[in-house]
Amino acid sequence: MKRALLLICVLLTALTAGAATFLEATVEALTAHSDFVARVRVNNTRAVKVQNRIVTVAECEVLEVYKGRGYPTARVVTPGGEVDDYGMRVAGAAEFTVGEEAVLFLGRPFGGAWQVVGMEQGKWSIDSTGKATQGHTGHLVDPAGKPLARAPVAPLGLGELKARVRAAAVTR
After folding, report:
1. What is the Cα–Cα distance from 140 to 144, expressed in whole angstroms?
2. What HEC string does 114-134 produce?
3. What are phi and psi for residue 105, nearest 5 degrees?
4. Which of 42, 71, 104, 138 is exposed most, by the fewest CB atoms within 10 A?
5. Is residue 147 scored above 80 in pLDDT?
6. What is the rounded CA–CA span in Å between residue 6 and residue 12?
7. For 9-56, what is each residue's pLDDT tens digit?
8. d(Cα 4, Cα 23) in Å, to the nearest integer?
9. Which of 111, 98, 108, 123 is nearest to 38 (CA)?
10. Among 130, 131, 97, 103, which Cα is nearest to 116's?
11. What are phi and psi of 18, to 5 degrees?
């Protein structure tokens, strides 16, 4: 099942003009592949070097759990960041800003730290009106690899997003 996530949500082709190419990930697909879905507030971020890579660690306060066990905090690791004079950017990776609120679809693919499922598609940023917008700077394609001509998913109210996650979690 975890391997299907790679086919559904993760980078499919080489980077093109600084953007990533993804299969479209619906709320239901993200929920199916997530161990934990929650509304969080980002309290701190720091970039660290791990072997020859740079990752960013976001310390998040869990405000509300939509799926999974109720953890008070979540440490989320994403690829990319800046350490000393070195920087690494991964097209399509979720990025975090201290103080922001978001709904995160999280998994532990190798039993370690939480990671965002579906890269940036698994982060829904919450604006001041309570609307959640799915992360999306890459190119979306259908399962045959053809570009999708439609616009990204419209923002959802938090109530609707929570209801869709919980309904999808029950059907699993």
Report:
1. 11
2. EEECCHHHHEEEECCCCEEEE
3. -100, 115
4. 71
5. no
6. 9
7. 333 333 334 456 666 688 999 999 999 999 999 999 999 998 889 999
8. 11
9. 123
10. 103
11. 75, 10
Q: How far apart are CA 157 and CA 74, in angstroms?
A: 23
Q: Which of 120, 122, 90, 80 is nearest to 15 (CA)?
A: 90
The answer, yes or no, to whether residue 121 has pLDDT greater than 60, is yes
DSSP 8-class letter at 55: E
The number of distinct structural domains making up the chain is 1
Range of the domain at 11: 2-170
Residue with tokens 């978001």: 102
Furthest-apart CA pair in the chain: how many Å? Answer: 48
Q: What tokens were used for 41?
A: 């507030």
What are the structure tokens assigned to 44, written together?
């701190």
Query: What amino acid occupies position 135?
Result: G
Phi, psi of 143 (to 5 degrees): -60, -20
pTM attached to this predicted model = 0.81
